[in-house]
Automatic annotation (TrEMBL):
GAD-related domain sequence ranges: 7-88
UniProt cross-references to Pfam families, sorted A to Z: GAD-like, T6SS_Tdi1_C
Domain annotation T6SS immunity protein Tdi1 C-terminal: ranges: 134-181
UniProt protein name: GAD-like domain-containing protein
Source organism of this protein record: Deinococcus navajonensis
């Protein structure tokens, strides 16, 4: 399997392995995730890039979290997450970005663009997300695989998402709490997959 796009990510933003991906889980997800992702897991394990800006993840670690947001009928497979807890996921084919703070999953392209996503979409040096990560990194220091930068208070509780409100938090505990609060705060009738339903005449 040609992993040139992953190698570009590593060359431009560095890489560090923090865990192995269990072989039985790679077998479980064969046919559900791109072959390139299976090859990354097999050859490199679970890695971080860009001084912790992006982390490749074990989907099993996020099953309960995405169910807390979207229920069991939307079985997102989370394959990466950012330092601020944005989740990169697959749902029955298409790619999604899950924005936990507003309990929203934004649909992207289909799986054919996965290699390009890896090389140039996971970390964009000109993006607001990259700038936010760099600011938090300078102010709060690096994070581990069990940590993320989180807003305290979270947006659903009136937070403004500023650097002054950003803290290093435990990723799974924080996202579970965000799921509990944010899903209660979203407006009635809001579709968590990113569109509003058409109102009846």
């Amino acid at each position: 399997m040609d992993l040139i796009d992953y190698e570009i990510l590593c060359e431009e933003h560095g890489h560090e392995q923090y865990a192995e991906m269990p072989a039985q889980l790679m077998e479980k997800y064969a046919g559900q995730v791109p072959a390139e992702l299976l090859a990354i897991w097999a050859q490199y394990g679970l890695t971080s890039h860009g001084q912790g800006e992006v982390w490749f993840t074990n989907p099993e670690d996020y099953t309960e979290i995405v169910q807390a947001f979207f229920g069991p009928e939307r079985p997102f497979l989370v394959f990466a997450r950012t330092s601020f807890g944005h989740l990169k996921a697959i749902l029955r084919g298409p790619l999604y970005t899950i924005l936990p703070q507003i309990a929203l999953a934004k649909r992207g392209n289909d799986l054919s663009v996965f290699p390009t996503l890896v090389s140039s979409g996971l970390i964009s040096p000109w993006s607001a997300a990259h700038a936010e990560h760099q600011q938090a990194l300078r102010a709060l220091g690096p994070i581990t695989s069990e940590q993320m930068y989180g807003y305290v208070p979270m947006l659903a509780l009136g937070g403004e998402g500023t650097l002054e409100e950003t803290q290093v938090v435990r990723v799974h505990e924080y996202l579970r709490l965000v799921a509990q609060v944010a899903t209660q705060a979203v407006r009635e009738g809001w579709d968590p997959l990113g569109t509003r339903p058409t109102s009846e005449p």
